[in-house]
Amino acid sequence: MNTSIPSDTAPRKLHPLVDMHVDRSAFEDLERRAERNGPWDDWPLYQLALEAEEANLVTDFHALRCLSLLPHFEPMPHQIDTARRVLHEMRGRAILADEVGLGKTIEAGLILKEYMIRGLVRKALVLVPASLVLQWVRELNGKFDIPAVAQRKAYSWDNDIVVASMDTAKRDPHRQTLLDGEYDLIIVDEAHKLKNKRTGNYQFINELRKKYCLLLTATPVQNDLSELYNLITLLKPGQLGGEGDFAANFVADRRVPKNESKLHEALGQVMIRNRRSDGGVEFTKRVVTNVPLRLSAEEMALYEGVTDYVRKHAASESGDMASMLSLVTLQREVCSSRDAVFLTLINLFKKTAEDSPLRARIWELVELIKQIKSNTKAEKAMELVRSLNDKAIIFTEYRATQEYLLKFFREHDLAAVPYRGGMNRGKKDWMMELFRRRAQVMIATEAGGEGINLQFCHHVINFDLPWNPMRVEQRIGRVHRLGQTEDVQIFNLCTLGTIEEHIVHLLHEKINMFELVIGELDEIIQQFEKEDNLERRLAQLVLETADGEELRRKIDGLGDTLLETKKRMQLENAT
Amino acid sequence: MNSKQIHRFVVSYLESKECHFIEKSPGGVTVKLSPDADRALSNRPYYWSFVDRTGTPPETMTYRWSFENPAMSDRMNASPVSYVMTESGRIIQEDVYFGSRRLHQLFGVVQQSGRCVTLFEEPPRGRLDPLASQAYTAWLGVNFKVGYECDMKREELYQWGISLATGVIDERFMDKLRERRLTPRLPANVHLLKNGLSLRKGMAQLEAALERRLRAADFSWAMEAEARRQDELERIRQYYVPMLEHMNHPDQSEQKEAVTARFNQREAEIDWQYRPRVSVSVLNCGIFHLPGID
Question: Which letter does DSSP use for residue A299 in this model?
């Protein structure tokens, strides 16, 4: 009894292939206590401990146990199916390549949860763009009861489940800490950033020691088949053969594969791509309403004045695109609020040489602003919000407009909170909470990439419209996403007789972008922008064309080009 | 575990820790924790070290635990912790469901505090001659968990016991114990037989028996995992070996070294991921003195 043997003696062979390891530390504890005559634990607790083990016991290899542990959460069938395939067919190394909006995060969460329950994953690392860190932490904690923490300090890495930004992780000293460690599971979101194997990101992920690995991307192939090859090689070197084999067997041209059925088979073993067209995913409807309004005489006078100024000035700038764009911005700002245009004019005034004749012109415009006593659009917006009698998010392009609206609503006893890109993460979260709990309105200047999910709200008011349809889509996407249970009402405030009217016409009537399937739009715009930048093209049209009718025709022409792109793509996808 | 089982589980724990129940209803309990339970559950190590250092009488926490499954919509709208203030102080409200943090924590706590016991069966009252002494045999009861692991995992429990007098093994030992009344104190009119086996020998025999049982089990899962492992190893060999063979130029020696390192790392990862193995752990164990000579 006096000799003590280490808890894990040499493993014993149970079968030619299988070693048996024994952990008998509880028994050693018993021996020690027996020698000292106690202390002893309670019999009820002894039984409860066994009961807890029985409840947590993983009785078979295959069932998805995580579902019974998430009683409050019902993943969609394609998400459950994806989790199963990754666990049982791909053995935990996979590319999740669902199209945008189908819930890749949820699939990854299910897989992580299942591995944790089974004791196959204890340490996991989630690498994502900085702007998505908190969203991931919130999803893993809120939906999956997974105690994930955001990496903030060097010691954060000691936690079992860490979410960190890729950019932080790959920099020393963090880089070395991570390379010295071992991870049961690594999840990389926005993994298309790993397509180039010469980049630091790629090499970093390649070097990390990992058992299972999930790469999440909505766009596995963007330009070049070799990018897909690199991504897969990161997971499973050799899956598509050596580099030379891949080129010889599967590539006809950079973007054109050959032996497609064979390629698909090889891909199917490591990649899952659910498509919206596969069905099964129901999004609620989008109902778009244009809210036309007439500017007051004073506001219209300002608009005319600015337009006149822009056109005359554009001629003199001849060709300097950057300053031409900023001129068009002036016109757009008038359609939003006098506050927005006022700031820009003042800055313009300061930049103009003191003896320039332009100064006087600009001052005239400022005088016109002073004539304006009320904001027709803001009044309309308030009327709209009151009639909705429900939560609404108002988007504007301009900080000054945002400030004005906040003040205006406050003066009329309408609770509103701001949201903008410059806020730090904590403040953004706080604003979202306030909107959820207390305020009827959120006024936001930014929608993109920041991971605000506002499914509890289903009214979007576009106070003014960005000229890039992708940004419009991002706005709507904050609200119209999986988890939204109501139809989403979208209102476009549209000042008649201004360029805004033309833009609303293009986006809404011509290309009908508001009702495109989620994700379809980004593909169309990406195709189009291979040749031209859409926003710049629009600005050019506006500056070149004085006549309203003619402008309408030209914008229609642009719309037709987009529609053709869409048709071409639908054909390509069908084959 | 359904909500009824969870309810019973939580209440048994709280009772064993002598907590004070303020309210019990079919859907939940409101409970003021005992100091012991508070230390284990309230996540306040600083507070407790303060109490220990200063000798201040401790103020324990009060919880209202609801055992009904929360709806997702409620969860998204609720803050993680919610409070109600009452005359007797603050009550923290939580949902305790299978998968919740709180239940997970409770599982961990009982596993730590229900690890080792020594118990005696209470002799039936009245029937026996009060002057005669009854012979008791010591048993070593051990609950094993066996994990079959490769890239997947499955587990089994073995709740066995061995008589330290005779070496007889009972494979339904926990069931046998559950039917009896056990007490931590040696009852009167009882004498303990001398053990034929030391604790360690008993344990060794139990393990040997378990090992025999496991050897006879189905190993097709392991053979399949091994096939997958070989398959994966072959795949990366096809990728790396030709690549390395082409790096013969002296200038490439550094590159070759790097690729070799990557190759070895991949091999180790595949091994880690797929190699079949069985792990046995002792969950808890105890010495049980039962009447009779077996």
Answer: H
